[in-house]
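mind reviewing this fold:
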Amino acid sequence: MVQLKDPALPPGAIVATHEEDGSLEEGQVRRNDGVVLDPASKNPWYVLATVAGEQSGTSVFKIDHNLRIKNRRYWHGWMCRHFSDEEKATLAAKLEVELDELNPLSEEEKGILYERFSKVFPDVGQDEIVPSPADDVDMSSTYFPSALDMSKFYFDGRVSFDAASFKGAAVFEASHFAWRVDFVDVFFAEDAFFQRAHFAGFAMFHSAYFSHLAVFSDGECKSVTDFSQAKFTNHVPFFFHREIYQDTSFSDNAKLWPDVTEKNAKQSKRAYTRLRQIAADIYDPDLEHFFLRQEMRCKERIELGKKDWFHAGMFRLFRWVADHGISVTRPFWLMVCVWAFGAGCAAGYFDSGAEAVSSTDLQDNRYLSAAGLSFGNLFGFLGINRLYFADMLRAAPDGLQFVAGLQTVLGVVLLFFFGLGLRNRFRLK
């Protein structure tokens, strides 16, 4: 298990900078799990993505969109320079950008690009200074201190942001990932925007940590997509109108999803409704049931905000029933508790020396008989009490008869939930 410096913070949170920790080089930071990240300004792929300049702030609202367009021109002019005219026309239509943006860089633009790289990497030769379009895009273990806007960028090969940390917003709106992309163990301290992004290959968001908004609406996922261990702390992710691949995974662990508050309940309810639909589309009934319960939790919180205690109570009751409908162990152990309570009441009655007990053969085996009587009460439809305990029950006090009747009712209800849980768990038809 990873030792965290601050157990109150997530593993990917930044806990030390170069100024605070002398063992770190200039620009480096240390995550809470001990991983050291290099500054984005020293990553050649980041430099290629910011030839025209870096964004100055961390908020998505402070992004300079004109600067992003200029940066994108250098990226595409370099990465797509070997594309045929037909390939460029097709890609320009997919990205919804001007065709000229994909043309090879002019000599003047190349000069600006080489100058930018020479300043960052003065000891690297010009032939090796800029990454090759044939290489994988590697921004793993990188710290991004300002917002990263790569909207409508084209990624031709494998892309890795593994163990990266985004202090500012991460914007990949309408970007096109032609092959595999990994955001494994990534920490998003601000909003993450992937709306209209196209994932043609594997898309791994395994163990990613989303501190704020995570927007994946619109766009397509054409291959395996993994959110199975992603954690969403403040907002339920948006997947409205996104085309989802059937082999897509989400977690049904409530600890990985945000707490429902009065502030986020309405928005979360809509997001969970969409996720429930996705779970149905990918034929995952357990996940669908989980998102239904989360949706009911949001509805309950909305009604509490209106001070509508009746409807809030109804939604809570529904969640309680739904929890039993998906669980096998919960109704089983409740049945054990109801049986044990009834057995204890019966044993106390037998120990009282009542005439109805002492005049039967039950006195010598009263604890075993108490257990049998309670079992017969719990499963009244088996007829055990009619065969062995009829006379004793007729002579029993009102309190014990009430317990027996309550056990019979609860036995039917809990047995129904137990069977329903088995059906949902093992898909028995």
